[in-house]
Amino acid sequence: MTATDLNDRKAAKAAKAAKRTTNSVDGIPPLARLAPLGLQHVLAMYAGAVAVPLIVGGALGYSAGDLAFLISADLFVAGIATIIQSVGFWRFGVRLPLMQGVTFAAVGPMIAIGQSEGIQAVFGATIACGLFMILVAPFFSQLLRFFPPIVTGTVILIIGLSLMRVAAGWIVDNNPDGAAPINVAFAFGTLLLIILIERFAPAPLQRVSILLGLVLGTIVALFVPGMVDWSSVGDAAWFAFVTPFHFGLPTFQVASIVSMLIVGLVIMTETTGDMIAVGEIVEKPVTRRQLADGLRADGLGTVIGGVFNTFPYTAFAQNVGLVSLTGVRSRFVATAAGVILVVLGLIPKVSAIVEGVPSAVLGGAGIALFGMVAASGIRTLTKVRFNNKNVLIVAVSIGVALLPTVTPTIYDQFPQWFTLIFDSGISAGAITAILLNLLLNSEQMREARLGDPAIGSSDAVRGPAAAALVHPDAEGTGLIPTQVLSDELAAEQTGDGLPADVSAIRLEDEDEADPER
């Protein structure tokens, strides 16, 4: 090796070291900044993270102790999944500042499976879903064509609408005579607090408006006898391990697994959008290889979730917005947040406190939380060109999805395999949207619209995100600006033989984008 080569290598190492000390994806902020920045990410996602175990456990009639355990398991695995996604190892992890949490897309199917087959079948289907996601991750770009914005927007809208029944159930609080006036007052009082925080609070507090609404609503409820039950907090330990298979060994039912695999495809679509969005924000566009690595990490987190008594995991889009808001690009901030989540999951008293939040207060926050999910779907649908066929796709899919929501007994006389799939409005709506899109939006119709001008998109930083696709029926999903590419231009730019709607995703050559990978 010549002296010139040696000097070049030293200069490259020095440049690399200097880069890591700046505000870059691979830079590590000082601990004095790292801890509060990580805590901010935890606060931004906390309300959404604990909502799913509360919903599912409550629907299955679990005791306060079991609900607290589900919350602990959820936080513990969310931390592990976040660390895997941000730090990465081998072919797992996108190595970007992404936070992982339990997806709302799985709530309906999990409740249906749990009520008919038991919680063990939910965990078995979750493990199968995670393995499926790991296996198909390298090929998922080929499946994106089945999830254009007309489908993903409809599914996200259905998720929000279906979950509103859960918010109403929290307000009613199992009262056969309807909701007590005090419950309604607390629910809408909590909702009003959230709105006032969004209107008058500083921007950092607005990002955690739902969490603050829950905290303030609970504090007010302390002055009403019987509203807050924290009797289990005293019995909860300060430290406890989250044990695998706490509720028994998982069971694997074919119909349950099929229902959860549909959720897995929705999760992968959502995470794809989040990865591309955060890559744009931190100015490190994801490569095709990184995309597969990130989806594998989603699958691995979901498998770990099934083992440790929790549910499927996905990237949380509200934290993508927080990265944009703060301008902090370091992936190790997400890692710090993951460590905080793991620690919280190992402190049962924290979970017991969360479990003791009045159901009416949860109901008020749920109206806002689930409404934001539905609004995210509507925002995605605004990118769709609403001709008669697309209107019909959305209309029929929502109609089919809401049938079991408004009339839960509608499929009681059908076989069990049918009810496990279609008793969940989310699964039924997703299947309907996919099939109708394939039927009504033929290849010839899509090709005829390839030359249409692009529609501008806005930054979607709230609620679940769909894939950032360029599709003949819509330009993107509101995550990043995109434009339509002709078949010739797409082939020239990508050279990978993928269809134009997939090739238009900003996936740069992996060696140029990340020479170390």
From TrEMBL:
InterPro entries: NCS2 (IPR006043), UacT-like (IPR017588), Xan_ur_permease (IPR006042)
Domain of life: Bacteria
Any Pfam family matching the protein: Xan_ur_permease
GO molecular function: xanthine transmembrane transporter activity
Primary residence: membrane
Residue runs in coiled coils: none
Entry keyword set: Cell membrane, Membrane, Transmembrane, Transmembrane helix, Transport
Cellular component GO terms held in the UniProt record: plasma membrane
Membrane topology: Multi-pass membrane protein
Location of the protein in the cell: Cell membrane
Segments traversing the membrane: 43-62, 68-89, 96-113, 119-140, 147-172, 178-197, 209-227, 247-267, 332-354, 360-378, 390-411, 417-440
Biased composition (Acidic residues): 508-517
Segments for region (Disordered): 490-517
Family per similarity comment: Belongs to the nucleobase:cation symporter-2 (NCS2) (TC 2.A.40) family.
Protein name as catalogued: Nucleobase:cation symporter-2, NCS2 family
Species this protein is from: Microbacterium pygmaeum
